[in-house]
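Example 3.2
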Amino acid sequence: MGHRIHQLTADDLVLMDGLLTTFGEVFGQPETYTGNSPDAAYMRQLLESDGFIALVALKGGAVVGGLAAYELKKFERPRSEIYIYDLAVAEAHRRQGVATALIERVKQIAVQRGVHAVFVQADTEEEDQAAIALYSKLGSREDVLHFDITLDEGGN
C-alpha cells in the first residue's frame, strides 16, 4: 500500500499533532516539536492562514512524513516564494518517494498560487547527505551562510 499526500486544513488538528510528533522523532528533538505545543485556536488560525502550508504523507491513516512551509510575500516585486521550513520522513518509510511526493505537491501549490520560486535549506553535507542529494536532484544549489541572531530576553 502506497502513501497519500494531504494538505492540512483547520479541521486537521489530529494530523497536525502527528506531523509535529514525526518531526520531533525524525529530528531527535521531541521536546522542540511537542513539549509546548500551541493550543487548538492558535493551530487552527495557522492552518487557515495563506502564509502557512502543512502537508502530511499518510500510509494506512498514519502520518509517515510531512512538510511545513511558509509563503513569503516579497517587497521588491509583486511576487512570493515558498520556503520549505521542515521536511521529514519516518525512517521506516524512506527511499519510497515520500519526500519527493511532498516536494512535488508543494510545487503544485506554488504553481496554483502563482509563486515565483520554492526554496529549502539543508545542514552541512556531513549532517544531511540524504537531504542534499534529494534537493540537488530536484533543483539548483546555492552555497550560503545562515546566521541566527540572538535575542535578549526583552526581545531587543
